[in-house]
Amino acid sequence: MLNCPLMKNTTVISVGGSLIVPDTIDTQFLTNLKTLIETHTANGRRFIIIAGGGRTARRYQDAAKEVATLTRDDLDWMGIHATRLNGHLLRTVFRDIAYRVMITNPDDIHDVPPQEKLIVAAGYRPGSSTDLRAIQIAERIGATHVVNLSNTDYVYTDNPKTNPAAEKIEDITWSKFRKLIPENWDPGLSSPFDPVAAQEAEKLRIEVAHINGTKLEALTAYLRDEPFIGTRIHS
User: How far apart are CA 149 and CA 214, in angstroms?
Assistant: First the structure.
């Protein structure tokens, strides 16, 4: 793992589906992300982007539940295919620099040629979100940091949309963070970071930077190892 050619200067980013399709497809976000990625890849950085399912997944899950009684696996698979649809959108938008195959199995990252500047990934199996796939891919290439692009500036002590007293958190350990989120994964769960992925990140001692994807200047600051607007979660 430590000798993996993708390890050096590679950034793993989990992109929330809420950014790609907040309601309709956000072409401005895609344009801004494309500009940022192309700028940094031109300067020698590599990226692995894992697409989330977001509202697209929840809409399909909610509609199916109105019509039939579904298993957790049924709901998870709909979410997984939503991530793959979003992933194909990203791979197409980045067609000039993206690896031609979208990764679903994290183990397949080992098969990607080292000269590839951008790899797009998506969901794999039921039981977790694409946050876990980001952590697993990071582990396979020896990366110690993952960026989690969301639609909020920070992780908060509670949901700021429903609790005005919720306080922003700029720095937090995994053990404290995990007390703020549900213990178990549930298909369609809305959480700053998937509980299964949080457990794995803590075990592997991988840092996650929670950054608002609508403010990509914060991501640029993080990539430059400068102070950034967002939350740093670490062991």
Answer: 9
